[in-house]
Amino acid sequence: MVVTGRALHAPVRGVLEMFDAAFVVDEGGTIVEIGRAEAAAGQVLMPGMVDLHVHAPQFPQMGQALDVPLWQWLQEKTFPLEARYADPAFAAEVYARLVDCLLDNGTTTAVYFATIHLAATQALAEICLKAGQRALVGRVAQDDAGQCPDWYRDASAEVAEAETRALIAHVRGMAGNEAGLVRPVITPRFIPACTDDLLARLGRLALESGCHVQTHCSESDWEHGYVRDRCAMSDTAALAGFGLLGRHTVLAHGVFVSEADAGVIRAAGSGIAHCPLSNAYFADAVFPLRRMLDAGVNVGLGTDVAGGASPSVLESARHAVTASRQLESGVDARVEAGARGCAGARVSAAEAFWLATAGGGEVLDLPVGVFRVGYQFDAIRVAGGGAASNLRLEAEDGAQDVLQKVIYTAGRQDICDVWVAGRRVGGTGS
């Protein structure tokens, strides 16, 4: 297969390359040659978006109850909804809509939290595979009776471990998944929802299986404080002690990660899923993105559906820039400008684009997010100018112009083609 067009990617954080390309893709979806070809005007090829943090079962509540504290949101809204996924038919209907939605928004790789229900989580993995989305799918483990309601928690740490093992076997054994397009991910919800026994079991399983791991880490004042009170250490230190920090660990949020924690995360090779929109609702603070990047921590972006009210990673990139500017400038106009914010905190649109693509690929240790020989052809074609579009790309636009226009003005309606592993799997085009 050959795909041609004007290509734009960020092979290095903050560095853009735009070139007219002909991508030669083999049957396995790998880029085997990059030639030159005349490009159509008003369009741009970009690497597919990588969403490091999606709560798949929360899709129906996207945009709801974002005005309450995190613990209240979980207990009153989220847990009752997630409990409904005991019904496989309900799960299959919601998950099919979600995967289609994310693909059409340009998300070629998604890292999913599911629920405690094994059958429903297996169905999510099967739906991702059928739709052609690169995905990491995790059955949520949560067994702590003090934080999880009787009607929505694992019966025991033993049950949670056994069903996590069953999911790993199911995903790895799915017919048609020999190339590992869909992968299992070990998923303790977060320390407050899990007993020490369960966390230790899952840490041992991560080492044994080589699976990715995902969990929440220092998301809010409440969670961060709870873990300190219970464990007498930070989230990061506690997770490391349970064996849950490794090269393939994705830590959602990390808003309150300290410099010492950052060193632990960097040494482990783990990564942080920065979720700027949901942080605005639930984190009580702004994630120090620039500080984490400067500390050498792997970082990518997440939508955090439904704590984030948008399924678009492009919007997450937009919000990442905005949040960094607010952190740098400060938000309280009563404070003098020089003392109002955190100097040097901003990130550029080009850096946010890198986080949404190559940065996410690096967190997951997958060959996605850049246009290079040997990498998978996961890509989107963006074309503005339609009646419903805010985006207009001009022939004279340079790389920075194109990138900023896409980041700040493009939407789902402008994504006309979506490819994963060389297969067209979504978009508004025919």
In short:
The protein is of the alpha/beta class and 430 residues long. It has 14 helices and 16 strands. Strands 5, 6, 7, 8, 9, 10, 11, 12 and 13 form a 9-stranded parallel sheet that branches.
Explain this structure to me?
This protein has two domains: 2-47 and 371-426, Urease, subunit C, domain 1 (Roll); 49-364, Metal-dependent hydrolases (TIM Barrel, Alpha-Beta Barrel), CATH 3.20.20.140. The mean pLDDT is 96. With 430 residues, the chain is α/β, with parallel strands linked by helices. The chain is built from 14 helices and 16 strands. It is 38% helix and 22% strand.
Let me know the average pLDDT.
96
The number of helical segments is 14
In this structure, how is the largest beta sheet organized?
Answer: 9 strands, parallel
What amount of the residues lies in strands? 15-25%
- Decide which structural class fits the backbone: alpha/beta
Helical residues, percent: 25-40%
Provide the number of structural domains: 2
